[in-house]
Amino acid sequence: MKSFFLGVLAVVAVFLVIGYVGVITGTLIPANADGTPGKLERWAARQSLKATIAREAPSGAAPIPANDETLNAGIKIYGDNCIVCHGAADGRSSTVGFGLYQKAPLLGKHGVEDDPEGEIYWKVDHGIRLTGMPAFGHTLSDTQVWQVAVFLKHMDSLPPAPNAKWRALKNPAMLVPTDKLPKQMRPKSSG
Fold first, then answer.
1. Packing angle, helices 117-126 and 39-56, rounded to 10
2. In angstroms, how far apart are the furthest CA atoms of the chain?
3. What is the dihedral of CA 54, 60, 66, 71, to 10 degrees?
4. How many whole angstroms from its chain centre is CA 85?
5. How far is the C-alpha of 134 from the C-alpha of 85, rounded, in Å?
6. Number of Cβ atoms within 10 Å of the Cβ of 143
7. How far is 153 from 27, CA to CA, in rounded Å?
8. Which CATH number do you get for residue 160?
């Protein structure tokens, strides 16, 4: 029995040494932003994010109303802080957003309307480690973070005035030429 446990301990020690060497040499987890993450890295990041949000995100409705004033304020904050990575209503990626690892979701194309407001709030407030998503809780007020969260929650069903404001936002960063985008990211043709 003792030799069995020593054998298990030796196997674990070998895997730990291989893992350590793989990390310090940069072969197991690439540090380059355009590198492809491994399955273990993607799984670990998803599980950790889900568990942290479940534990820390506010539950229930936002403490501010989803009225024109709140939505317009959220759109303004989004335009000032988020659009360069997450794109405008047209769903086009900028060169900044396209170059990020992990790719920032293009919210005009693939929004977060299905997410609870508290989860959206948490992501904006705290950011997401090992992605390009910064924590805005140190630079925006709590009300501003909620305004962005409420806008993102309702961005597919905005009243006319906020919708016009959202559709009028332009990305200040250079857009990626369509022919450089992978086919699944190209805008749908209108013909």
1. 110
2. 74
3. -20
4. 9
5. 11
6. 11
7. 39
8. 1.10.760.10
Q: Is 106:87 a contact under the CB 8 Å cutoff?
A: yes
Surface-to-core class of residue 158, CB atoms within 10 Å of its CB (0-12 exposed, 13-18 middle, 19+ buried): buried
Residues 67-97: pLDDT tens digits?
999 999 999 999 999 999 999 999 988 989 8
Q: Which residues form the domain of 47?
A: 39-57+65-177
Place of tokens 């992605």: 131
Give pLDDT tens digits for 16-35. Answer: 888 888 778 877 777 777 77
Number of independent structural domains in the chain: 1
Is 98 contained in some domain?
A: yes
Residue (of 99, 145, 104) closest to 126 by Cα position: 145
**Does any domain span residue 136?**
yes
Q: Kindly list the distances between the CA atom of residue 23 and the CA atoms of 15, 19, 150, 168, in Å, as whole numbers in the listed order.
A: 12, 6, 40, 46
135-143: long-range contacts (C-beta < 8 A, 24 or more apart)?
Answer: 136/81, 140/77, 140/81, 143/64
Measure CA 45 to chain center.
12
**Assigned domain for 188 exists:** no
